[in-house]
Amino acid sequence: MTTETARVRQEDAIGTPPQRPTLVPAERYYSPAFAQLEVERMWPRVWQLACTVDHVAEPGDYFEYRCGPYSILIVRGGDGALRAFQNVCRHRGNSLCTGSGSELRELRCGYHGWTWDLCGVLKRVPNRKGFGALPMSELPLHAARVDVWERLVFVNLDRDAMPLADYLEAVPDDIAWCGLVDFRCYATMTIEVEANWKTIADGFSETYHIQTLHPELHRCVDDVHAPQVIWGHTGKSEQLYGVPSPHIKQPLSDEEIWDAYVDTQGALMGVGERTPFPHDDRHSGQSVADVIAACTRAFAAERGVDLSWASTDQMMRLHQYNVFPNMSLLTNADHLTVLAARPGPDPDHGELVMVLFTRMPPGAPRNKPADVRMPAEEAHPGLVMSQDLTVLPGLQRGLHQPGFTHVVLSNEERRVINMHRNLERYLELTESDCTSRGGETP
C-alpha cells in the first residue's frame, strides 16, 4: 500500500463538512408524477444491470429483464453473440418471452405466430397475404443496447447512449486487481418491498446508519474511516472489517469482534453461529482481521480457490461501488454481491434484487443461477440485510407525512446526494425543483 493510499484510507466518511445540509424534496419518493418522469426520461436512457453472464452463457439462453413498464429480452445467438431486443411482437404488441430459459431457437409470438430468428430478423408471418404488401425486412425486432462488464450484463434502451465502459467511469480500473471474472453467479433473490426504489437504493449508498440499525455489524467494521469518492455516474466507499467501529468507546476483546463477524458475515468464511474464536490456530502477532482472513482463505481452498495472493487488507476491506441509478456492487478478494433497486407497480413499492456470487477456480464451468422471488416478510437474506429490509416500510410511510417536506442529507450521505443530482440531469428539472447545494459538489 502506498503512503498516499494509506492517507486516503484514514479519511473519514464525512470528508469536508458543507456549510449547510443538502435538502431533497420528499415527494420525489412517492409522487406518481415524479415516477412518471423517471419512466419517460430516465429509465429508457441509462445502463442497467439486467442479469449475469451465467444466465445467458450458451447459445439459445435467454433472459427477460423488466424495469417498470419496460421489458427487454436478452438472447445468446447461435453465433455466440449476445443481443437485446424490446420484448414486443411487431404485430399486436404481445410479449415474446417471459422469465428465462435455454435452447431457444427462434422468437415466436404465442398470440398469432409471427416469428423472428435470434438476430431479430422477421422470418414467418402466418397468412401473410392478408396484409397485402408486407416487407419482412421492415419489421425486425426493436434492438436495445447490451454490453458486458466482467460477469454482469447491462442493457440500455437508448441506442445512442454512451458506451458502457464510459458510463462505468473509473470503476473497472479501480477494482481490476480483484479478478471479478472468476466469480460465478449461483442465485438471484428478488424481494418485493413496500418502498420506493430510491428509498431502497439509499440504504446501500451510505454507512451513516450502521451505528444505529446494525449494532452487531458495528462491532466488527470501521464505519468512520470509510473514505468516499464521486466520479459522476458512479461513486465508491470503502470499509475495513474485522475491527470495531471507532464510535465504540469501550474496548472490545478479540473474541467479541470475532463473534460479531461470525453473526454478520460468518458464511463468508464457512462457519456457523456461535463458532468460537480459534485460539489454537492463531499465530503470534496476528490480529483478529488476520485470523478471519486466514479462515476465509482456507474456506476458499476447499473449493479449489487459491487466495494466497490476497493480503489481509484485500480480504477484509469491502469496496462498495454505486452505479447510477440503482446498482451497488460490494466486493473484496473472496466476496461479490450486487444489489439493484427497481421500481414496483406504484411509487410506494419497489424491488430489491440481490445477485449472489462465489469465487471459483479460473475456468470453472458456468452455473445456471437459481432465480427466486418473494415478499419481504418471507425473505431471510442474513442478519444485516434483514435489518435493512425491516426499516424500509416505515421509511416510506414517513415520507408521506404532511410536515415532512424534505430529506435532510449529510455529506456522509453524498452518494445519495450524487444519485439525486444525476436524476435531476436526466429528468431535466428546473433549478427551483433541484436539491439545495449544501453538500459537497461532485
UniProtKB/TrEMBL annotation:
Where does this protein have compositionally biased stretches of type Basic and acidic residues? 1-12
Q: Name one Pfam family in it.
A: Ring_hydroxyl_A
* Cofactors named for this entry: Fe cation
A GO MF label: oxidoreductase activity, acting on paired donors, with incorporation or reduction of molecular oxygen
- Boundaries of every Rieske domain copy: 47-155
* InterPro entries listed in its UniProt record: Rieske_2Fe-2S, Rieske_2Fe-2S_sf, Ring_hydroxy_dOase_asu_C_dom, Rng_hydr_dOase-A
According to the record, the residues making up region (Disordered) are: 1-21
Write out the entry's keywords from A to Z. Answer: 2Fe-2S, Iron, Iron-sulfur, Metal-binding, Oxidoreductase
Q: What is this protein called?
A: (2Fe-2S)-binding protein
